[in-house]
Every structure is written in C-alpha cells, then in structure tokens.
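New to this. Please check this protein:
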Amino acid sequence: EHAVASILSSAGAISAGKWIEVMESTAFPETRMLTHTDFPSGFDFQRLMDHLVSTETQPAALPWNMLEEWATRSPLAAAEWLAAHPQAHLQGAFRSLDETLPIAAVIKATATSTDPSREAALAALGSLPAPELETVWNDIGSGAPGGSGAPGKIEPALLNAAGVMGQRENYLVQSLLQTRGQREIDPSWRDLPIAERSRLLDLAESQWAAKASAPVDDRARRHWRATLEKSWSAP
C-alpha cells in the first residue's frame, strides 16, 4: 500500500497530468490511503480536482493536502471551485472515501492568507451549504485537526474569517467551550466587548447543559462560569 501511495505521490510532484496519467493507466488496488504530496510550482490543482470529481476510476490513494495547498497558493481559485462543487466529497474518486473534504484546513489557509483575493475567497466559501459550514466551524472553534491550533484562544485571522462567513458566534462559542478545565483563560477574550462575552457564555453554557445535565455537570458549569467571570473582571 505504501509503495502505491509513494508512486502516486511522486507523480503528483511532477504535474497534475502525470498524476492523472498514472492513476488512470495503472491497475493499482484500491487502498483508500491519504497521502502528502510536495506539489511543484505551477501545479494545476483545478485540472486534478476536475478530474477527481468526474472520473469513474477509484484511485489507490489521494493527495489529501491538495486543497489546503491550493488555497495557500490561490485562495480565490480554490474557494470558487469548492463553492461550485458543494457535493464534491460525494462525486467521482471521492466516493471511495468515508470522510468529507478537509474544508476546515482550506478555511484556515485562506483566513491566514495575505493574498489580495482573501476577502473574496472567504465570501465564496461562505456560500457553501449552511449545515456544512456550521459543522466545519464547530471543528475550527474546538481545535479539531485543521482548525485552531490553540484551543480556548481567539485567533484574530479566524475570527475575521468567521465574521465574513457568518459564523462568528459559532466559532466563538466553540472556542469558549474549550476553556473548560483551563486554569488560565487566554487574554484574547478580553478584546471582546463585555456584553458579547456574557452572551457567548450563556450560549456555551446552554449547549453544554443540553449534552450533560447530571448534578456533577451542573457543578462543573458553575465552577467554569465563576472562573471565566473572575478572569474577565480582573484588572
């Protein structure tokens, strides 16, 4: 399996055309492996993605960093492609996988981009189906892979991106829930207005209570609220 993945990864390191050629002309067994590929400068990501959603060939392995890398190099092109293919994870070669595309990693790459097309790219990503966006921003706020690297800390670039995409509240609530059990609350929360912090705390506490309502959970919530309020009121 690793040899097969290595062959396809090497092909991707040459060009999109070579990856497609090797994938379509070689009778590799299907392994559903996800690989990392070092894409060369000028790699035609759109050609590869267009092929993957249209082919009937089930690849032995897929370069799973392709969308994130595309978004890093050309945020608007990657975002517009995703917006035009909201069900891409159910099409073509992707049907062989049991997971969705790494949209959280794409959003993070776009959010931290200095490319002039950043805002337009975020707006395009914001047109993805609402349920998918909510799930993705839940992951980002909770520090899941591809999301925020520091649970419980507000990342300015991600907060801005969430606002552009209509997911500010979702991102902040999920991030706030990650402060449970933390002895020190990250100072980034002090940058939010007091009224917004209080509203977010109420929303986060309500979400927690809906999932866990035993007496021990009630005590944990009271302790958590007290910790946050003490941290936020300190000079």
Remarks:
- The radius of gyration is 21 Å.
- The mean pLDDT is 88.
- DSSP finds twelve helices and two strands in the chain.
